[in-house]
Structures are given as structure tokens and as C-alpha cells.
Amino acid sequence: MSGYRRPDIPARTFVDGAGSVIAYGSRWGGGSPPDDTYSVISNPERFAPLHVVTDALIEWLAATYDVTVEDDLALAAELMHPQPDVVRAVRVAPRDDASAALVLVFTAFPGVILHAGLLHDFGFPSCGCDACDEIWAPCADELEGTVARVVAGDYTERIRRDTELGLQYSLSGPGPGGRSGSTRFEGEPLERIAAAESALVHRPRWAPWQTRSVCPVEGQAPAARRT
Fold first, then answer.
1. Residue 224 carries which DSSP code?
2. Where in the chain are the domains?
3. Residues 181-215: tens digit of each pLDDT
4. Which of 40, 129, 180, 200 sits at 20 to 30 Å (Cα–Cα) from 32?
5. 3-state DSSP assignment of residue 37
């Protein structure tokens, strides 16, 4: 991710009712969390830095690649499943439609949902409950890694029609953000799935994003168009 730098995030400490520091990220010592922690989300504001990181990613994408940028709450409709607590949605789309667009959705949780390409969403954090014991920094690693793989052209989507209708996806490469898996469609409009399938049949892999060209007269890259 040449040119990208994660913003400096001040450390925060959270305490329980007795005033003891809560060691998020290592609370269960490798063991199983208590059953009652699966239904508890304490101090969700510990994920607030993800909004700061996402802002930085948007600025980096706009400055580095030949894209258009739209900032509109209505863009959250591109998510596979509606979210009731959206506070901001930004679409960063390469001008070349052979490359996968990104919609970065900020939630009031606070968290971020990344819609990549046509039919898949990635959530950061993936859950947020006390049992999962997630912290913001590894989530940011995964978010940055996911964005990096999409812009590098290391992202694939494919409709599968075996025992059930679903999506198979892959983010290739080692390190944070690399993963593959499959999801089952549940309630998504068949028209949306059919349109995506028609588009994806010609794209075995999404193309890398094109970087911005430099103006030979002024020596500056043209600004990304924002709406």
C-alpha cells in the first residue's frame, strides 16, 4: 500500500465496575469465554478508531487511483443486508468497470462494513461481542489488507449453484486480509443475483485498479471526482 500510512490512534483504557482495567484482546487466556459473554457488548467505543482508519483509506484511494468518490447515505443500499445504524456511506469506484468498486459503510456501533465488488460484505469487527474479545487494531489490519487485495486485483467472486445458491469469493495472498469462503444467498433479490452473475462470467478475477495519471503540463495528478 505505497503511500498509505495509518493515522496515529491514541491508546484508550477501559475499566470494569470495580475499576480494574479490561484487557480486551486477551481476556480469556486462550480458553473458552463464559457463556453469558456471547450476549454482551461492553464499551463498543473501543472500535471507534476503525472510522478514523477508514477515513484515511478513502483519502488514500482517492489520491492514488483513477476513481470517482461518492459520499451519500443512500449508498448503504448496496450492502447485501440492510443496516439500521448507518451514519455514513462512501463509494470509491474505479473508472474502469473491470475493477471492483468499494462501498465503505460507517455504522453507529461504531464499526465499518466494506462492500466489495458485487455481492459480498466484510464486517469490521466481525462480531464485537465480549466473547469474541476483538480489538480495533487487528480489525484495522484486516480492513487495510482487504482493501489492498481488492485494488491489487487479487479478489474474485463467483456464483455457485451446487446444493444451494450462493457466492464463492477469494482474497488471495498471505497476511491480514487474505481469505476465501462461501456464503448462501438468503432473501437477496434474484434480479440482483442474475445481473451479478452475468457480469461475473466475464470476470474470473477483478482487475487491478489503475493509478492516477500525472498531468504532463502541471506535474500533478487530476483530482478524483467527488459527488
1. P
2. 37-207
3. 999 999 899 999 999 999 999 888 999 999 998 65
4. 180
5. helix
